[in-house]
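[#protein-structures] MJ: dropping Armadillo repeat-containing protein 6 here for a structure pass
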Amino acid sequence: MMAKRINQESFDDVVKENMGEFGMEAQEAIDDAVQQFESQGVNLANIVKDASLFGENGEKVEHPVITAINQLKISVDNSDKGEIIQILKKLKSECDVDLAKRCMAGNNDAYTVLLNAAIKHKNDNELLKEILSGLISLTNGQPDVLDEAGCSFLVENLTTKADDKDLLVTNLKLIRNTCIKHESNRQLYVKKKMITELVNILIEKKKEPAVVIEACGLLRCLTYDDDVRVPFGSAHEHAKMIVTEGNCLKMLLELSQEYSDNTSVLKELFSTMSVVVVRDEFCKAVMDMGGLDFILKALQNNLGEKGIVKQALGLVKALAGNDDVKVAAVSKGGIELILAAMTKHQANAAVADLGCGTITRVVLRNPANCAKVIECQGHQVILQAMKIHVKEELVQKQACMAIRNLVARTREYCEPILELGAEALINTAKTNHKSCTDEAKAALRDLGCQVCLVWSWRVWSVCLP
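AK: finished. structure tokens for Armadillo repeat-containing protein 6:
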């Protein structure tokens, strides 16, 4: 259930009442108001709580963020560029402080003022960049302020401002801000053909690392399913569109090869590829174009780079949804590389999580791949990850799934896994992490250990063996 919220005016009225009727000092009045609202379950993250904004009798003093907005309204038409930039920087610095000040700015027409200024000065790239930077600060954590006019303007900039690298990067960052946790905005951008624009940018500006990084980040953002207000998003559909409308797989692979020596860009390309291979044929296509060979080689050459290791593991995991890719990955030394990465970065929970998850996917319904993991002592590496990251819920869950898949069709591996103390580790995971219960019980069941299976829709359970 979403927390209750109030507006700034309601909060300020309570503070003023505390000061006027109960003789409290400003800070005391604010603290009391905070306590009152929080006791009622109100989330005050969007509320400015600044004692300097109240006079002796509780009268309000204009907040600097509102002053900056009012100054910008006047100066955008009548002042020189230097003065406008100074006001923009003041507004940006206020918005960068916290979400509460950004909300105050948003509630006092900051978005409309900034957008109108951007449209008015769209031919002045220096000033436009400063305005868009202000919008980046404003929209951080509050993408709701975007409207269709702003969406159209930003998409248009992807074409009209493509020759100015810094301005293009700023524009991409702003669009990304307005997409995070906002499904309607993402769908609006897609309807305005932004996917095609982004693909064109990646092709035309492929020599610009900063542009490639931001464009990839924005493509990934279109595949997010992070808006709790929407029951069903379009993440899967957007991922398919990125591949089918832009021939994106081939382009991403070619860019990866061009940036094979630049790990900062390469990890972004791998991360983007991993979120768009959402269909079986997409995974197969990547392999057929030589992508699997390149990814494994990149992993081998960059085993010391955590960023590349994490993204390469995530990409192999995504591609291994295809059965042919599973077989090919193992035949090309993929298991050895996965285990080497997990061993080298055994203290890193994210690598342990992704490593276990990749093994889970690779050995699923494939006894030959299970045999290879056991041959390479992969079960030891998995259990070692469980010991090291006993408090990490995701690692424990993925490790339980990996163990379950290793023995589900090859019960001869139960004994060597149990000899290493798997049962106790899995039971610990089940006890410590409620979300691991199903995975832990499945692993215990297939290992032949004692486990009670409860059907949530029935009133009885079965204990095995």
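MJ: nice. The first helix runs from residue 8 to 22.
AK: one more thing. The CA atoms of residues 294 and 460 lie 52 Å apart.
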